[in-house]
Amino acid sequence: MSEKVRIIEKDKIPSDANMIFGFPDVGLVGVIATSHLISELNLVEVAYMDSKLLPPLIVLHEGLPHSPIRVFGNNQLLLAISETAIATDTLDPIVNSLVDWGKKKKAKTIISLSGIPVQDRQDIQKPKVFAAASTLESLKLIKEKGVEVLTEGYIVGPQAIILQNCAKTQFPALTLFAQCFLNYPDPEAAAEVLKGLNLITGLKVDVSKLLEKGEDIRLRARDIMKRTQQELTKMKKSQEYDLPLYVS
Amino acid sequence: MTSKKKQFIFDTIDEYFEGFEDWAEQLQERLAQRHSWNQRACTIEPLRHMEITPLEVKITVDLPHTEEKNVKITQMNEKTIEISAKIKKSVKFDDFGITYRRGEFNMLQCRTRIPVPVNTDQMKTRFNKGILEIRLPRKSRKDS
Fold first, then answer.
1. β-strands A173-180, A69-73: how paired?
2. B137 — contact with chain A (CB < 8 Å)?
């Protein structure tokens, strides 16, 4: 783990848990989905990140200060969430530290939730969910569960770091992507990605409340979306629209 | 191809790329630093996105909690349009658990500067899932 980043544990960390990541990205799909998971499953904070790489800010909840990057959990699940946009130049050490910590805690699988931007998203009634994996076994699991594989393309951002880190050590990891808006918070896409998570993990997370609160979330998430947009531009997120040139 | 036509194509490409990336980046930074809640006017600034292609300018605006009939687009001048939409139910900071600020908001409103000449009289709009889409054809040389 990078010395610049410390994960402070507040509670006993379960082993053999699925570790889920929800970081600010296109459509804030991961953040919206993981926030819903926390409230729906009553997850509690089990660890938080302390790092000079983070901006000098705390998040107040019920009058108490919290790190913007925290890990929630129960005895089967760990969930890492960031409540602030992460500067592009610090994304690599921050995400890698959390992934390494998850591996050390013997997580079963690392699953990141995100979106894949599509043009004219407003015309899509039900966003499709795709997945990519770090190993052949994880890829097999995705196919067995009936989730469509993202076969070709570029991935930019936290998901790229997670998959690369896990592929290097052949650690099982996968990313679920729902079709989403590039620049607007997308609770519908978050609901679809959670349905994909239910399929993969056997969780039974109800998304009806998330869909009911969709318009409130869109209004509330504007500020974090705006700051995330800035970082997405810096990390050249638009490359995800490009066609890769495969040379065998 | 005549040299006049060639010149026109090169001019268009130049116009498109010249400093546009810088401008977009600066604008985005400025927007991110600005408050999106205007307590005096009781308005909230919506998220918006602009795409400029050689033929048109496409603007989308995220307008949650609004209805198409309450969306108003006003041309302020040749280069600026204002978009406003009444929110179905007013929103307070209290609704988001913010107790140290006071304010009630009943409108989403923003002004957008269009960086290239467009034909506003040929504007096309549509509204779906709370997303307003405005398409403005770019003015060609002969229009201007």
1. unpaired
2. no
